[in-house]
Amino acid sequence: QVQLVEGGGGLVQAGDSLRLSCAASGRTFSNYHMAWFRQAPGKEREFIAAIRASGGGTYDADSWKGRSTISRDNGKNTVYLQMNILKPEDTAVYYCAGMKGFFYSGRLLARDEYEKWGRGTQVTVSS
Predict the structure, then answer these.
(1) pLDDT for 26 beyond 90
(2) How is residue 28 annotated by DSSP?
């Protein structure tokens, strides 16, 4: 069984960059497509980006294109999210999630398609 633990969150200032990590336990991490979501207080959990199990392709939410980069290291069982030019409205809990199967936008954007979720890491951006 794969378990996910996010890290790297914290308090940063507007304009800063931050790299989140998500470490997976278990031997089947490389079988999962991985994604990052975030959830701000009072709002729904929203998709940020996803990466294929092999690491050979990514899909980004339009609102994050050019401002974030998702990557993974299957040798370290870890997926990363590099975020740049952070804004106060980026304040949220950030979650990583994993799924198997077909990698296409219709599934990637749907929270219910993901089998595995971490507990999240808080990112707070001050103005």
Answers:
(1) no
(2) -
Mean pLDDT over 38-61 rounds to 96
Cβ atoms of residues 94 and 123 within 8 Å: yes
Give me the residues paired with residue 10 across strands.
123
Contact 37, 121 (CB under 8 A): no
Per-residue confidence band for 65, with pLDDT thresholds at 50, 70 and 90: confident
**Cα-based torsion angle of the residue sequence 44, 99, 117, 47 in order, rounded to the nearest 10 degrees:** -30
Tell me the two tokens of residue 67. Answer: 């401002």
Strand-pairing partners, residue 33, are: 99
**What is the rounded radius of gyration, in angstroms, for the C-alpha atoms of the chain?**
14
Report the candidate in 106, 60, 104, 108 with the shortest Cα–Cα distance to residue 83.
60
Q: What single DSSP character describes residue 13? A: E
Q: Are 32 and 100 in contact (CB under 8 A)?
A: yes
State the Cα torsion 126-12-80-92 to the nearest 10°: -30
